[in-house]
Amino acid sequence: MTSQIQLRNIEKHYGAYHALRDISLDIPEGAFVALVGPSGCGKSTLLRTIAGLEGISSGEMIIGDQDVTKLAPRERDLAMVFQSYALYPHMTVRRNLSYAMRLKRRPKAEIAEAVDQIAKITGLSELLDRYPRELSGGQRQRVAMGRAIIRQPRAFLFDEPLSNLDAALRVHMRSEIRQLHNRIGATSVYVTHDQIEAMTMADTVVVMRAGLIEQVGAPLDLYDRPANKFVAGFIGSPAMNFVDGRISGDGGSVELDLAGAPSLALARPATPGQRVSVGLRPEHLEVGAQGNSLTLPVALVERTGASSYVLTDTPSKILVCTAGRVGDDVGQIIVSIAPENIHLFDAETGIALR
Amino acid sequence: MLVFKNTFRDGVGFDAILVTLALGYLVLFSAFPLVYNLVMSFQEVDLFSLASFDRPFVGLDNYEDVLTRTEASSIFFNTVKFVGISVVAQLVVGFALAMFFQLDFPLNTWLRGLFLAGWIMPALVVGAVWSWIFAGDFGVLNYMLQALGITDAKIFWLSNPDVALYSVIIANIWLGVPFNMILLSVGLAGIPEDVYEAAQLDGASRIQRFFTITLPMMRAQLGAVISLGVIFTLQQFDLFAALTQGGPANSSNVFQYWSWQLSFQYYEIGVGSVISVLMILFVVFVAAIYVRSTRHEQVM
Ligand SMILES: Nc1ncnc2c1ncn2[C@@H]1O[C@H](COP(=O)(O)OP(=O)(O)OP(=O)(O)O)[C@@H](O)[C@H]1O
Ligand SMILES: [Mg+2]
Q1: Which residues does ligand 1 sit against, CB inside 6 Å?
Q2: Which of A47, A54, A68, A74 to mutate to test the interface with B (most CBs of B within 10 A)?
Q3: Which of A190, A217, B52, B163 has a CA positioned 20 to 30 A from the CA of residue A276?
Q4: What's A110-168 look like in SS3?
Q5: Are residues A128 and A225 in the same domain?
Q6: pTM listed for this prediction
Q7: ipTM confidence
Q8: What is the pLDDT of residue A176?
C-alpha cells in the first residue's frame, strides 16, 4: 500500500506556544486514522495544518506524490467535516452539496445526478430543498458528510464530527461513517477526544499529548501494549489503575506499595530492585483468589446491573470492574490478575518495560 | 386614572400605558405634521393664511405649478444624481473599509475610531470644514491638486455650476461612509470563519468566496444600508446650506433644499409642501421595498 499522506517533522508555533512538535506520520492509502488525545493537545491544529488552513513553521507534507507544504487549502483536494458542520447557511441542502461542483462549472446534468446519488447515500433525498437552519443536528451532520463525499477528494478530514450529537445518535453515526468508509475506501483522518470512538472506528490510532505523538498503532495494540503510562491511562475505559511498586530481588515478581506489601508474579522477569508503576486494568482484576491475588479494603460499590464497579480504600484508589454482582456489606475484596495482564512502567520516565 | 393606580399597585395595564405613550408621540410628532403637510399641498398657503386652517382649496394646482416650473426637471435630475452617486459610493467605500478593518493589523481599532469622526460631527460643521477644503482661492484641495501637478488652474468647486453638485456629493459621501462601514462591519463579523474555511476546502478562490459567501450572506445588511442611505441622503440638508445653497443658479439644487427654499425663503408654502409630499411617497416606497426584502430573509 502506498502512503497517501506523509508528514515529515512538522513543527507549529503560535507565537511562543509550541503547538506541534516534530510530528512525523505516514497514512497509507485507504486507511482510517484516528487522532486522539486530551483537550488542547493539538489534534485540531494538526488536522488543520493537513487541510492547509494553518501554516506550519517547518517540516513538509506530501499528499499522494505531491509536496503540498506550500499549497493553499483549495489546491490540496481534501474535504473536511467540521465540528460545527460549517454549512453554508444561505444555501439549500442541494446547493450546499453542489457548491464545489458549481465552482468547477460542471455541467448541470452531472451535478444533478451527483447530488441525487449523494442524497441517497446520506439519506437526504427528502431534505434537498431545506435550509440548514431547518434541519436537526443529525441531519446537518449528514449534509456536512455529503458535501465532503460528493467531491471524491484525495482524503477526508474529520474534526470531532459527532461531538454535537446526543449519545444514541453518536453511536449510530459512528457505525454509519465507518460503513461509508468501507464502501468508499478513501483515506480518512478522524480527530476525536473520545477514545472509544477512536478504538471502534479506526484502523490506526494516533495518541497525542501536548503537541507530541505518543504512540501510533492498531487499536488493540495500543490497548495490549501501550508504549508508556500516558497511552496506557488514555486508552481503555474505565482507565487503567496505577500502583507504585518495586521489582523483587529475583526479578520474578513486583511488590506493591500497599498495606502488607502484597506481591504479584510477573510473566517475564524484570530488573531486580527497580522502582516501577504497575498498571492494572479494572476489567482484568477478577474477583476471587486464583493465583496472583490481592486483598483490598472496599470504599464504594457501584452497580449498573450488568457489572459492578468496586472502588478500593487504598492510597491510590483502585477500580475493579467485574461482571458479577458484589454484595453491599463487603469490607474487603479479594481480586486476582493474570501475570500477562500486568503492565509495568518505569517509575521515573513512564516508559513501558517489556 | 384607574389604569395608573392599578399600574402602580400591581403593574396591570403598564403595557397599555407604554403603547398609548408611543402612539401619542407618533400621532403628535409624525402623523400630524405629515397629514398637515399633505393638506397644505392642496391649499393656497401664504404668509397671511399661515396661522389659520381655513385656506382656499386649490386641488392639484400646486402640483401642476411646481412640476411645470423650468427648474423642476434639472433639480429632479440633480436629486437623482445626488442620491444615486452618494449611495453607491458610500456603499462601495464603506464595504471596502469594512473588509479592510476585518484584517488584523496594528492600530486597527484606533484607525477605525478616526473614521467614526465624520459620524459624530454635526453635518453643518462638516459642511463648514468642507467649504474650507473646497474654497477656490485658498482651499486645501486646490493647493494639493496643484502641488501634485494634477491640475494647473484652480477649480472653483463651489461656484462652478458644472462642479458644485459633485462637490456636495463628495462631502456627503465622506459623511455617510462611516455609517455604511459600521453596519457592514457588523454583518461581516457575523459570518462565521469556518464557513469561509469550508468554502476554501471546497475550492473557492478569494473572489469566488466574496461573491458566493460574503455578498449573499450580507444581503440583509446591504438592503438596510442602501435603503437607509437613500432615506438619509434625501434628508441631507445641512451640507447644501453650508456649501452652495443650491447654487449657482440651482445647478446644485435638490428637492429637499428646494422645498425648504420655496416654503421658507419665498413663502410659497403650498408649493413647498408638494415637494415634501412627493418625497415622502418615494421614501415610503423605498422603505416598503426594504421591508419586503428582509421579510423573506434567511436568518440563521
Ligand atoms: N490560533 C491560535 N493561537 C494561539 N494558540 C492556539 C491557536 N489555536 C490553537 N492554539 C493552542 O494550540 C493548542 C492545541 O489546540 P487544538 O485546537 O489543536 O487542540 P485540540 O487537541 O483540538 O483540543 P480539543 O479536543 O479541545 O479540540 C491549544 O493549547 C490551543 O490553546
Ligand atoms: Mg479540537
Answers
A1: A 14, 17, 19, 37, 39-45, 193
A2: A74
A3: A217
A4: HHHHHHHHHHHHHCCHHHCCCCHHHCCHHHHHHHHHHHHHCCCCCEEEEECCCCCCCHH
A5: yes
A6: 0.82
A7: 0.85
A8: 87
